[in-house]
Structure formats: structure tokens, C-alpha cells
Amino acid sequence: MHIPLAEPPAAAGAEHLEQQQAAITRLGHELRALVEATVRTAASADTLHRVADGVRHVTGQLTGRRRARTEIPEVDGFPGGPRMYSPVVGAGSPLAPPVRITPTDDGLIGHCTLGIAHEGPPGYGHGGMSAMLLDELMGQACTAAGTPGLTVSLQMRYHQPIPLETPLRIVGRVTGTDKRKIFAAGTITTQADPSTDLVTADAVFITPDPDRTRALFPGLEEEA
Ligand SMILES: CCCCCCCCCC(=O)SCCNC(=O)CCNC(=O)[C@H](O)C(C)(C)COP(=O)(O)OP(=O)(O)OC[C@H]1O[C@@H](n2cnc3c(N)ncnc32)[C@H](O)[C@@H]1OP(=O)(O)O
Q: Does the record bear Transmembrane in its keywords (predicted)?
């Protein structure tokens, strides 16, 4: 396996990157507040039209160069570094809860709170959100273990609905490897009751071979 894990930003550009990341984080925070307000509001149609006009005006201010589809943002490190626009962990993403991840002796733990924008059944999280959270935690656990891979199989078991607006605890860990295959497991509980599994998952990840890695991620710099 030959996928170079991300290095920290070079010292010369560190201050610039920190400023960019801080600005991206701030905009992400405001966008999430807008999403939350949007999905909760009972405002009149007139107000909604006026807000839509305002949002369109604001969107028009994000001009200049746009990154290409396969380009890795300069503020990111891939794999194994920050992903500012990830829909799971990205501080700059209006879609992300975002999950904050910390390492443990046995894998990774993520913390987040889902909002009404992530609703499936009324008052509870969408099952696809649970799959996304667990896929990410298990995928990042593979990377943290030194064996990054792509998900080829994800088996979900939904034991109880996930409450919205409730701090959650997501665990991902590697359970075994077999050549390029990495096996992982994960759970979602509330932070208040970490011994009651709400959702559990098993997954298989595969580390692509070097040719496939280059083809899939042309923006990934080759290891010197
Ligand atoms: C690289 C780091 C990236 C980290 C980013 C974080 C990711 C977060 C999680 C995601 O969102 S991943 C996105 C969703 N997943 C994908 O889009 C993956 C799509 N699949 C692929 O692109 C290819 O399947 C892949 C490049 C991963 C593997 O293709 P290969 O051609 O290298 O695999 P190959 O067919 O040679 O199979 C390798 C081994 O895996 C086995 N295998 C393949 N599919 C399997 C499967 N579904 N279940 C179990 N085993 C499987 C296969 O039998 C074989 O076993 P053996 O070595 O024992 O013969």
C-alpha cells in the first residue's frame, strides 16, 4: 500500500492557512445557522422570497477561481488531514453537523449533535445520516491505523431511533486486515448513555493499488 498520509502545512504558509481555515469555519458556522433557520421557520412566502433574493445576492459574491472537481483544497490534507468541506467533519460545510473526532487507544470517537436539517422520522435522525457518520468514523479509523481505504461494503443495523438535538457519540475502529482489505466496526450512542447502542455497523474498506490511487486522486501528491 502506498498512499502518503497528509503532512501538516509547511511552516511558511501556516499562518495563511490558519487564516483561511478560520474564515472558512466562520462562514460554515453562519451557513449552518441559515440552514437551521430555514428548516425551522414559519415565515410568510413574502419573507421567504425576500430572503431567497438576499441569499442569491450573497452567493454572487463568491467569485474568482473555483477549484476543479478532483483538486484537493490547499486548506486540506488528504488522507489523514483536515477536510474543511467534508459533509461529515467539515467546519466549512453547511451540511456537516460537524463531527469533532478524537483518537483513542482502540480507534476514534466522534462527537456531534444532529439538527432538524438531518431529520428522518419526525424528531429523529435520518438513517442515511447515521450511515454517513459511521462510514466516516470507520474510514478515518482505517486512515489513523495507517491503512487508508475506500468503503466497499457497509452493513447498518438500526436498533433505536437517533434523537435530534442530543449530543451523540460515534465510535469507529479497525477490527482486522487481510491484504488490501480492512475490516471495521462502529456504533452510535448518545453521550449521556454510551452503553446503549442505537445504531451499529460493520464495514469493509479496500486500499486501492497505486495505479488506481493515482487514477482516482490525481490531486494527491506522490510520496517523494
Ligand atoms: C484512499 C483513502 C480514502 C479515504 C477517504 C475517506 C472515505 C470515507 C468513506 C467513503 O465515503 S468511501 C466512498 C464510497 N466508496 C467508493 O466509492 C468505493 C468504490 N469502489 C472502488 O472504487 C473499488 O472497489 C476499489 C478501488 C475500492 C477497489 O477496487 P480494486 O480493483 O482495487 O479491488 P479488487 O476488485 O482488486 O478487490 C480487492 C479485494 O477486495 C475484495 N472485495 C472487493 N469488493 C468487495 C466487497 N464489496 N466486499 C468485500 N470484499 C470485497 C476482492 O474480493 C479482493 O479480495 P482478495 O484480495 O482477497 O481477492
A: no
Q: Is 107 helix (H, G, I), strand (E, B) or coil?
A: strand
Mean pLDDT of the chain: 94
Query: DSSP 3-state assignment of 175?
Result: strand
Ligand 1: residues with CB < 6 A are 3, 79, 135-136, 139, 143, 148-153, 179-181, 204, 206, 208-209, 212
All three cell numbers of 6, joined, read 497528509
Instruction: Report whether pLDDT(35) > 70.
Output: yes
SS3 31: helix
Whether this prediction's pTM lies above 0.80 is answered by yes
Question: What is the number of residues in the chain?
Answer: 224
CA geometry: angle 104, 109, 115, nearest 5 deg: 165
Rounded Cα distance between 152 and 146, Å, is 18
CATH of 1-224 among 3.10.129.10, 1.10.3720.10, 3.40.50.10420, 3.60.150.10: 3.10.129.10
Most ligand 1 atoms within 8 A of CB, residue of 2, 78, 152, 175 to mutate = 152
| ipTM for this prediction | 0.94
